Every structure is written in structure tokens, then in C-alpha cells.
Amino acid sequence: MGWLPWRRSSWTAPFIRSKSVHSVCPCDQTRRNIKWGLSNRSFSGSVYKHKSHNPGHDEGGEDEEDFIKDEEVEELFQQQRPAGFGEEDHQVFIVHPDVKWGQKKQHLTTAELQMKEAVGLVRTLQNWSVVDKIILSTKTPEKKLIFGKGNFQMLTEKIRRTAGVSAVFVNVERLSPVSERELQEAWGVKVFDRYSLVLHIFRRNARTKEAKLQISLAEIPLLRSRLRNEVANLDQQGGGSRYIMGSGETLYEVQQRLLKERELKICSALERLRKKRHMLRSQRKHKDFPIVSIMGYTNCGKTTLIKALTGDVALQPKDQLFATLDVTVHAGRLPSRMSVLYVDTIGFLSQLPHRLIDSFSATLEDVVHSDLIVHVRDISHPETVNQKVNVLNVLKNLQIPERLMSSIIEVHNKIDLLEGYVSPDPEAVSISALNEVGLDELKHRTEESIMKSTGKQTRILKVDLKSPQLGWLYKEATVQEVHDGDDDCTANVKVVISAAAYGRYRKLFQVT
Ligand SMILES: Nc1nc2c(ncn2[C@@H]2O[C@H](COP(=O)(O)OP(=O)(O)OP(=O)(O)O)[C@@H](O)[C@H]2O)c(=O)[nH]1
Ligand SMILES: [Mg+2]
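^ thats the input. predicted complex w/ magnesium ion below
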């Protein structure tokens, strides 16, 4: 699914939300059609490369170069930004509406923890700061001004009296265009909600073409809101809904049409990236590497863990929310010497507006095709239980097959921060990714699970050294040991091999 230096002390609860991830993007149907045609080893965010027995990591990108040009993506990314999405820095006043009753009440957390998270989100943006904050109760969160009359007046006075405020962050999922406009008018500064703030963070952290396009797509609803507000303003001056002479369209309709065209352009560019990956995959010979998806709440230590498991120096864990915005693949080895591919994924966050998740869910769709999911938890986090619930809800909504859901390995990370930590769940693996503690057990558990899910087996094969059998096994399976056979021309070879590869071996070399 990254951003500002994330202070551990001021930590908060990030986010994935239990919401269907199937998106409303107009190119969805095309995407689905393409998806059905894909091999079962597809990864939207990345293409993996096989380098003999030392496959490296790959962040996807270079191979798609000629398919969609940087300039084309940059144009879409830079051309139209929602208001307030420039490079400017803000001094932010945070307002957290505390809903005490009704459907919108949050049951698994507290207003204080949610405020901490809000502070963390703002601080994730470099050079942004929090000038003041307030938790204010409301019985009418659905109303335009969110608060009752008295509280709203008090809040407005407080904001206007606070020196240096350049923006207000209202810690709700999404403000309606009308609310946004009226709050901006009342407070005289830019107003952000979670959707726009998180998108802002995404925008600053986006590096790859796919991330940039996904962000541009997620920004479309903000552009629509802005348009609606602009037209409302123009109408007040008697302008927006008039027909443009000779066109039969109003200004609003023209701008809406342009936005729709932009949306389709972005969808088509995303589709081209996917098609290209599909093509590249089909061109490569299928390699039998098991795939392990590393998932979890943002900042729980996914990237740190993969770095520790693979020694991949290119990986850069950061004390930031949403440091990883793209799915990347990294090769490592299990105790039997079997090569395995670890997939680093975008972190989850609770109460993230579903349209945002929709845009990024494509990067998670392919997790469905992995052989194992490792769920990493920051066990030192005050909201660790809430985070687990969020992550599992999202996984359910991704329609992960039951075989994967039931074999998830839960990892309790950052145990170095909790003295003498003993997991209450005997099935969980306790580790410190940072200090590389507990990784051997994790690798053994991973291997055990993969052997089960892939049907791989350890076999001892009698190999004819005059034939290319041994070379083939080195390429297609994991050779663990080679011992002299009964004569000079044979060897006994211990391999880990899948049922499919063993079938191919027997057919190719006519072994019974
Ligand atoms: N103390 C401690 N810190 C850790 C451990 N593992 C990771 N961290 C720190 O936690 C922060 C986040 O680590 P990342 O690996 O970037 O987390 P992530 O889950 O990939 O985060 P996103 O990509 O933003 O979702 C970094 O500052 C890490 O150094 C650990 O075992 N102990
Ligand atoms: Mg990461």
C-alpha cells in the first residue's frame, strides 16, 4: 500500500480498513480480464529476475521503460494536483472529532491514541509541524460543520487566535466538498482530512511509475470536489452553470469531462504497465521459486525483516509511515538452501479511505498467488491488537484463499523493546528484525510451511553423471548434497524438488 520521520514515542495507530478492495476504476474490467490470463506468479509492483542460483532483488521499472515513458507518467503526475498539494510546508492545527455515540464511534481505540496517530501523520511530512491540537466531542459528525454550534464557535475562535496556523487537519476519513469549503471559509486556511493528508504523504514518497499513477488516480475524487466547490463559488457570482457559447456544455460539464478523460488516461497507463509485466513474465522461463509475502501494518518492520533475511543492501527501512509504496521482490535462502522470494508490500493503516485503498489494492492483489503469507506485527506498539484486526480484515477483503489464510505465520517483531517478552501465542515467532534475533526459527517455520504448501519434497536421486541430469537439478531444484554413487558414473544427490519438477525430470531423463 511512507512519509515523515515517525517518532516512536508519539506513535499512533495506522491504518487499514475493513473495506472491499475492489475498485471503481473504469479500467477495472479490463484489468480483471487481463488478470485472468496471467500466470499464477504475477506481481503488479515488480518483476523478478532469475540470476542462476543467486537471484537478486528487483524493483521493477527498467523493463517497462519503452512501454510507458517517464515523461508521460510525470505529465500525468504533475499536471493537475489537488489544491494544497504543492511543495509548501504547513503549520497545522489538528482537530480530532471524538464521536461518543452511534455508528461512527471507534471501539477498538481511544481518542488520545487517534490523536497521536494524527500527530504522527502530520510529522511524517518533512518541515510540517503541529502548532496546536484539540480533541472535541461531537454528536453530529455527519453534519456539515461536524460539531454543534457552541463547540464549533469555540473551535473557530481558537484556530483564529492561534498564531502561525496555515492549515487545519480534521482527523476524519473524508470531508464532503461542502464541509471542506465551509470549514475553509470559517477558518480562513486550507483544510485537510485523512484522505488528502495521506495522499500528500504518498505523493512525496512516490518513486516508481506505478506508484505515481496510482496516486494520480486516487487524487481524482479530490479534483472532483475542488471542481464542485469552484462551480459553487462561480454560481454564487452567477457563472459556473452557464452554457459555453456554441458548445452545448457548461463550464462544469467541460471540466468534468476533462477529468474523466484524465482518469481514463491514467487507467490505461496503469494497464499498459501491467500488460508489459505479463509479457516479460511469459518471455522468461518459469522458475520454481516459492513466494513469501511479508505483510503488516505500516512501520511494523517488514522491510527491516526482509533485509535481515536476504542481506539485500538495497533495502532501506525507514522510521516513517508508508516508507514502502511499491511491491518489491527479494531473494533469500532457507535452511535447506532452497531459494525463496520475499515480497515486500505496502503497509496497512486503519481508517484509510477506501478509494485510496482501491487504488493501491492492485499492488496487493497478487499476494493471492504467493505460497505463504508472513504477518509481521510491531508487538511493542500500544495499538498492536487493533493493528492485527485491521490487517486481517484487509486480507479477508483481498479474497486471499483459505489455504493461505490458514497458514499465515504471525511474527512478533521488535521484542528488543520489551524486556523478557514471551508471546502469549505459542504459534507466533518472536523476533527482533533489527538485532537479527529469532530469524533461524522463522526460516525453519517458513521452510516447513512452504514444503507443505508447494508439495516440495526432499528426495535422494541416483544421478547418471554422463548425462546432464545433475546440471538440470541444479537449475530446477535445490541440490543439498552430492555423494559418490556405486560407481564412477553415478552420484547420490539429495534434492528438494516440487512434484511438478520431479515429473519433468522423470520424463526428460526417462527415469522410473
Ligand atoms: N527496535 C526495533 N526497531 C525496529 C525493528 N524492526 C524494525 N524497526 C524499526 O522500525 C522502523 C520501521 O521499519 P521498516 O522496516 O521501514 O517498516 P515497514 O513495515 O517496512 O514500514 P512501511 O514500509 O512504512 O510500511 C525503522 O525505524 C526500523 O529501524 C526491531 O526489531 N526493533
Ligand atoms: Mg517498508
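The chain has a mean pLDDT of 77.
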